[in-house]
Design a protein that fits this description.
three-stranded antiparallel β-sheet; mainly beta; homodimer; 9 strands; globular; 0% helix
Chain lengths: 108, 108
């Protein structure tokens, strides 16, 4: 058994992506952010839908239509495949702990 | 956007199962337990694997080999399809908030 809140690695000012489950059509991932943001001018444009929940910390997500979403612990949302988005803020203390599920999740 | 920690329903001493995402081969579900346990002598015996994380509260899981696992907030584990299990304890205050992902998750 593991615990999502326990940080084993030294964070060293880098974002950490850890795969928890990796199957053909589904990936469960923990992401630890400590101040990192998506590089300016670039966007995430993903092949799969992503259901993501912020479990610790605070963060801001920006969509390409310029709508911004402030996230606090427990907030979750579905980012559809190819829905361009950027992370414009992540808290350092406490670190952001994200749980992300990647797959075919959106209703047709 | 929703928040996994916000309880909208009156709990009324019953366990609450809420579907967040429901696709052909994948279901994401929130479960709220407030003292409920699996009826004595019965076991969960599920067709799908279940990845489950306890996000709030404390709980105890029992496998059919009599091994018991005490869970606290943040603990997660994979229960394979047909791995018989029971919940023998769930905390009332705070209520248990579980996030469960049902699908084909185990490595072959």
């Amino acid at each position: 058994m593991d615990n999502i809140f326990i940080l084993k690695e030294l964070l060293n000012n880098k974002e950490i992506f850890e795969t928890i489950i990796n199957r053909k059509n589904l990936k469960i991932e923990r992401i630890i952010s400590t101040g990192q943001t998506t590089p300016k001018g670039t966007w995430y444009d993903q092949e799969k839908d992503e259901w993501v929940i912020l479990l610790q910390g605070e963060a801001t997500l920006l969509y390409s239509d310029h709508s911004a979403i402030d996230l606090k612990a427990g907030d979750y949302l579905l980012i559809k495949a190819h829905q361009k988005h950027r992370v414009t803020f992540t808290s350092v203390d406490p670190p952001c702990i994200w749980l992300a599920i990647h797959g075919n999740l959106a209703q047709n």
